[in-house]
Write a structure and sequence with these properties.
316 residues, alpha/beta, 2 domains, 3-stranded antiparallel beta sheet, binds zinc ion
């Protein structure tokens, strides 16, 4: 069963979208006039069709890409694939990243594709400039220019194969400055310092992340993947005092954490600084919805995490 059903509730029109998803039917209500009901996926990746069709060739040229997307079973989608899935899952808008390509030409092409996608789906796609940390100073100049061209943030900033070395560090600080000046968020890949290994997990220490936060006052920072667990330390008074505009996204949570994490994180952080991000096409949004329900999150908290916090942050 799938389709639209218009309901009249206290005189206010509502639309219920019924979507068949795997073995269950997801019901999503859109309040027609309420922005706060918007579902925003803060963490998705798309690739130009030529990268998808020629994956092996691109993997040969880029060790980090090979590491994460080298296997044909690692899913990739183009803009159409993303928007189709958003329709199926009832997602209104998605923050979209590319990949931190080492090759400057490929990086430029992939970022241009994000802007093209925005031009085709202006109401659905919120593109972030995805920089390469491998290049020289031009990376930082390009990031600044891209924000004038329509990019709405910088991210996912990641160094999948190199770790946080001195070169990456100075580039990261320069990018943060660009984001601060433009008043846009920067989303940084983060991962746990403990636990199992998986493609994309780098040697990242929480104290480095913390140093970055301390050195970038004024930056609106989103740490991906629950900040590699950094949120726990917001229980420390000295940490909580320093954190002003730090957000955490939920990307890849079902692969990493038990569904208790949503409620525990919300207890520590409060309702406003958690952003739903799926890491689609890695995981579909409905899986997160199920986990939030299993984890006992109130409807109010789910509403905030699934969209309201993102709308405020991005002024959507
Ligand atoms: Zn990531």
């Amino acid at each position: 069963m799938s389709g639209w059903k218009i309901l009249l509730q206290k005189g206010k029109p509502r639309v219920t979208l019924l979507v068949r998803q795997e073995d269950s039917i997801i019901t999503k209500e859109h309040g027609l006039s309420k922005v706060s009901d918007m579902i925003v996926d803060f963490h998705t990746h798309i690739f130009p069709p030529e990268v998808i069709s020629d994956r092996a060739e691109f993997a040969n040229r880029d060790p980090a890409f090979e590491h994460i997307y080298g296997s044909p079973s690692a899913r990739m989608v183009d803009a159409e694939g993303l928007v189709e899935a958003m329709d199926e899952e009832g997602v209104d808008k998605a923050v979209v990243f590319g990949f931190p390509w080492a090759d400057a030409g490929v990086c430029k092409m992939a970022n241009a594709y994000l802007l093209e996608a925005k031009a085709r789906y202006p109401e659905r796609i919120v593109p972030f400039y995805t920089p390469s940390l491998a290049g020289g100073k031009q990376t930082v100049r390009r990031a600044a220019r891209s924000l004038d061209e329509g990019m709405q943030g910088i991210g996912e900033v990641a160094f999948y194969t190199s770790g946080m070395g001195r070169r990456q560090w100075s580039k990261l600080l320069d990018l943060a400055e660009v984001a601060i000046e433009a008043g846009v968020p920067l989303l940084l890949h983060a991962n746990e310092s403990v636990g199992h290994n998986y493609p994309g997990k780098t040697d990242m220490r929480l104290r480095d992340l913390w140093r970055f936060i301390e050195q970038t006052e004024g930056l609106t920072l989103v740490l991906a993947h629950w900040g590699g667990g950094l949120f726990f330390y917001e229980l420390m008074k000295s940490v909580a005092k320093r954190v002003t505009s730090l957000y955490y996204d939920t990307a890849a949570s079902p692969f990493l954490y038990s569904s208790k994490v949503y409620r525990i994180a919300a207890d520590i952080l409060g309702p406003e600084r958690i952003l739903f991000g799926s890491d689609f096409p890695l995981i579909r949004p409905s899986r997160y919805r199920r986990e939030m329900e299993e984890g006992g999150l109130s409807e109010e908290l789910q509403r905030r995490i699934m969209g309201e916090n993102a709308c405020k942050l991005l002024q959507l």
